[in-house]
Amino acid sequence: QVQLQESGPGLVKPSQTLSLTCTVSGGSITADYHYWAWIRQHPGKGLEWMGAIDYSGNTYDIPSLKSRTSISRDTSRNQFTLQLSSVTPEDTAVYYCNILQYWGKGTPVNVSS
Fold first, then answer.
1. Whole-angstrom distance, CA of residue 28 vs CA of residue 62
2. I need a surface site. Which of 35, 65, 85, 99 has the fewest CB within 10 A?
């Protein structure tokens, strides 16, 4: 069974770059499992799909975040990462990594000075 674990700073200052890592076990990020995604949930709101990387290393994003997001991977560590630049308090959310029906537990990120 695939397991995912997010890690990263819980607090980031405005204008800084948020960097999160998803460590995958029970499956390889180079296997054809569809898309390894980053999803977030703002307080009291629904889920927002932010972007993904596939088994070949191709990345996918959404227009509203395209200029600020970067998704990459480290195949030797079976990890994929999200970088979100120029964060604002509106980026405060719980961030999840996901593939198919498998989810990490989520890591809360607070953007505050």
1. 25
2. 85
